[in-house]
Amino acid sequence: FAYELCAIIAEVNLMRYDFRVKIGGEALDAGLVKEVFACLTHDHLERVMDSFNTCVSEIRNKKAYLRTALYNSVFELEAGTINDVNWIG
Fold this sequence. Notes:
This protein is mostly helical. It has four helices and two strands, in the order αββααα.
């Protein structure tokens, strides 16, 4: 499973910057997606794997789902950290 995630990240990193990549049904420049993917850490990958394994709805396009989940995980983990800091502070 981790290999699949790495393959998706590698595929995006090999794309031309002006290539269009679908994330959540929206076509984004590959350059933007590359920048977001550059922020991925082990925690992000674990979060994506956990979310996939606990998903109760049918996933029709696994690759598209995982690409979007990887992209979104950067923002979700960051928002969660900010919320935790604000709650403690």
